[in-house]
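Example record

The entry below shows one chain as it appears in the dataset: sequence first, then C-alpha coordinates.
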Amino acid sequence: MKASVKLFLVLLMFLFAVLPFLVIYDPLSKAVPFLPNYESPSWFVPAGFVSILGIVILAIMLGNGDKHEPF
Protein backbone atom coordinates (compact mmCIF):
# COMPACT_ATOMS: atom_id res chain seq x y z
CA MET A 1 0.00 0.00 0.00
CA LYS A 2 1.36 3.43 -0.88
CA ALA A 3 2.42 5.81 1.85
CA SER A 4 -0.05 8.46 0.67
CA VAL A 5 -2.95 5.99 0.96
CA LYS A 6 -1.81 5.00 4.45
CA LEU A 7 -1.61 8.65 5.47
CA PHE A 8 -5.12 9.27 4.13
CA LEU A 9 -6.49 6.27 6.07
CA VAL A 10 -4.82 7.43 9.29
CA LEU A 11 -6.26 10.94 8.87
CA LEU A 12 -9.67 9.43 8.19
CA MET A 13 -9.38 7.41 11.40
CA PHE A 14 -8.68 10.61 13.35
CA LEU A 15 -11.70 12.28 11.76
CA PHE A 16 -13.88 9.30 12.68
CA ALA A 17 -12.69 9.66 16.29
CA VAL A 18 -14.33 13.10 16.67
CA LEU A 19 -17.91 11.84 17.11
CA PRO A 20 -17.16 9.28 19.85
CA PHE A 21 -15.13 11.94 21.66
CA LEU A 22 -18.08 14.35 21.54
CA VAL A 23 -20.43 11.64 22.82
CA ILE A 24 -18.11 11.08 25.80
CA TYR A 25 -17.57 14.81 26.33
CA ASP A 26 -21.32 15.56 26.71
CA PRO A 27 -21.80 13.95 30.17
CA LEU A 28 -18.27 14.87 31.16
CA SER A 29 -18.97 18.57 30.55
CA LYS A 30 -21.94 18.37 32.92
CA ALA A 31 -19.98 16.60 35.67
CA VAL A 32 -16.83 18.73 35.65
CA PRO A 33 -17.66 22.37 36.38
CA PHE A 34 -14.66 24.03 34.70
CA LEU A 35 -15.35 22.44 31.28
CA PRO A 36 -17.58 24.33 28.85
CA ASN A 37 -21.11 22.94 28.76
CA TYR A 38 -21.79 20.96 25.60
CA GLU A 39 -25.14 19.53 24.55
CA SER A 40 -24.75 16.81 21.92
CA PRO A 41 -27.66 15.86 19.65
CA SER A 42 -29.32 12.50 20.22
CA TRP A 43 -28.12 11.10 16.90
CA PHE A 44 -24.47 11.39 18.00
CA VAL A 45 -24.65 8.13 19.99
CA PRO A 46 -25.48 5.83 17.04
CA ALA A 47 -23.18 7.85 14.79
CA GLY A 48 -20.41 7.38 17.37
CA PHE A 49 -20.80 3.60 17.22
CA VAL A 50 -20.71 3.70 13.42
CA SER A 51 -17.56 5.83 13.63
CA ILE A 52 -15.93 3.28 15.94
CA LEU A 53 -16.83 0.54 13.47
CA GLY A 54 -15.26 2.64 10.70
CA ILE A 55 -12.09 3.04 12.75
CA VAL A 56 -11.87 -0.73 13.26
CA ILE A 57 -12.36 -1.39 9.54
CA LEU A 58 -9.71 1.17 8.60
CA ALA A 59 -7.29 -0.31 11.16
CA ILE A 60 -7.78 -3.75 9.63
CA MET A 61 -7.19 -2.31 6.17
CA LEU A 62 -3.98 -0.67 7.37
CA GLY A 63 -2.85 -3.87 9.06
CA ASN A 64 -3.47 -6.03 6.00
CA GLY A 65 -2.02 -3.55 3.50
CA ASP A 66 1.38 -4.99 2.66
CA LYS A 67 2.59 -7.90 4.74
CA HIS A 68 6.21 -7.73 3.56
CA GLU A 69 6.64 -3.98 3.51
CA PRO A 70 7.50 -2.13 6.74
CA PHE A 71 5.18 0.71 7.78
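Notes for this example: The longest helix spans residues 44-63. The CA atoms of residues 35 and 61 lie 36 Å apart.
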